[in-house]
Structures are given as C-alpha cells and as structure tokens.
Amino acid sequence: MDNYRFSRTFLSDSGCVSCPRRWGLRLWVTVLAVSMLFCQVAGFRRRITDRTYVPLTPIILNTTASNYTYVTGETAILYCAVENLGTKTVTWRRANPSVILTVGLYTYFGDSRFQTQNVLHKDQWNLHIRNVSLDDQGRYECQVSTKARDIRRSFYLNVKEHTSSTTYVEKNQRLVLRCNASSDSYPQDDLDWFMNGHKVESSDTEGITITKSVAYRSQTIWSELVIAHARMQHAGTYICRTSDKLVTNIKVNILNAGKDNVKRGTEKSDKGLLFEDTKSQKESYSSPLTGSWTLIFGIIFCVLS
What we know:
Layout: E1 9-12, E2 15-18, H1 19-50, E3 59-60, E4 67-71, E5 76-78, E6 82-83, E7 90-94, E8 99-103, E9 106-107, E10 114-119, E11 124-129, E12 138-144, E13 152-160, E14 165-170, E15 175-182, E16 192-195, E17 198-200, E18 208-215, E19 220-227, E20 236-241, E21 246-255, E22 267-268, E23 274-275, H2 278-304
Parallel strand pairs: 4-13, 14-21
Antiparallel strand pairs: 1-2, 3-6, 5-11, 7-8, 7-12, 8-9, 10-11, 12-13, 15-19, 16-17, 16-20, 18-19, 20-21, 22-23
C-alpha cells in the first residue's frame, strides 16, 4: 500500500489556508502592537515625572507711561501692561480716596464713565474714563489680584480745563478746519462736526464739504471741513468730536473787509460779531458827506467862472 504524506490543511470555501503560517503572522503583529503601546505609555509617564511645573508670576511692565494729561471732555486712557496674568484678575482703583473702579472687565464703581478694555495683542488692561472732568484728576493704581496685593503700579492723571482757539477768515474766502482722533486698539468709528450746537453736514448748495480718512496702522481717523465761500452766518464755535471724545473746539470769526471795513483785532460782542471803533465809524459816515460837498462846490465854481 502506497504511503501518502498529509499536510495539516483545511479546505474552506475561500480556499486552502495554512494554519501555522496564519496564526504566526497574527501573533507577531499582536506582539509588535503591544510593545509599541507599552513604549508610548512608559515614555509619557517618564515625561510627566521629570517635568517640574513652576507657575509664572504676573508682572506689571513699565512699558507704558505713568503720567497722563487730558483736557476736560476727552476720554482719558491709562495704559497698564500685565504679563503672565494667567487666571488672575486686573483691578483698577483710585488711590485717594481709595475706591475700587473696575475688576477685570466689570465696572465695580457706580459710574459708567469708568471702563476697562483688554487689548489682547499688547497684554494691556487699560482704564478708560469718558468725558473726564477736573474732579477725576489724581492718582490711580493698576493691581493684580493676589493675596499679598504687592503686584501694582501707580499712575497719575492730570486734567486741564478746555480752552478754545480762535481763527479768522475773510468773507467769501475759503475756510478749512481739520481734526483727528486716535485710539489704542482701533480707530474711532466716526468724527462729527458741530457749529453752535448744530450738526454740520456736507451740502453742495452751501458749499460745505466734509471728507474723512482712516489709517488702521496708526489707529487714527482724520476729518476735514471745508467751506468754499465763508459768509457771516458761518461764524461761530465749531466742535469736532467722536461719540465719546471732544477733539477740537474752534471759534471762527468771519471778517467783512468790504462795505463795513471790519479789521482784525477789533472789539467783539457777546455773539461773536466784530465792530469797528468809534473813530473808524465816524470816518466811514463822514466820507460820503464830504464827497457830496466837494461835488457841489465844484459845480458852483464852474458856473460862476
């Protein structure tokens, strides 16, 4: 009887598969995967064990000024740069009397004029005081909330009373007024012009043109008011302002250099109108009369001769 050698194979629907080779490959892949997982876990644990975590201490930087001067009606801004703030909070307070104004972005003091704005890319927590007044002058503190309360910096705000400037322009001449406003984080939304409390708009019939431009790099907005032919009704006090900041306050006097012969430096009334002195008025009234008598005497002399 012939001897037959049988291999350990199984016949399945998908074909003949060698069992030792199949299970050996699976075992090898499993061992490799478990080894890689073990190495990853061991390395991660080693990194955690070797790492010594040291919390960073907040620091108030001296990169901003400590003394600021503003004019009444403006928005005063005190700049405070804080590094490594983490989970701490910045508090603004007035030194004398000691009053907490803002905590983080929340206004703690019962005055909505005081607000804190966070400039993320500069790590700044700046105190804004809208419509600043003489009573707001004094010393302020920017403080990081810690148990020791030793991370702080002092600032001084000086407030000056607003004084308007005066400009003169001849009647029918071109009047040009300019102003600009800037911000620490973004340019102001708009600039508006007012004349004697009434808003000034561009008008073709009145010859009034208002142009504006914005520079995002310097965070500044400019505005120019042009009156092509200034007339007497254009005299008054012009104010250029943003929604929360008085920028320019100019008193404009229109000089009538024609019939009335109005000159610069003459006396002004309460309404801003200009008047000549008594001597000039007498001369202006006597001049027509003198000319008439000269004409009459000339005619009589010609007839008699």
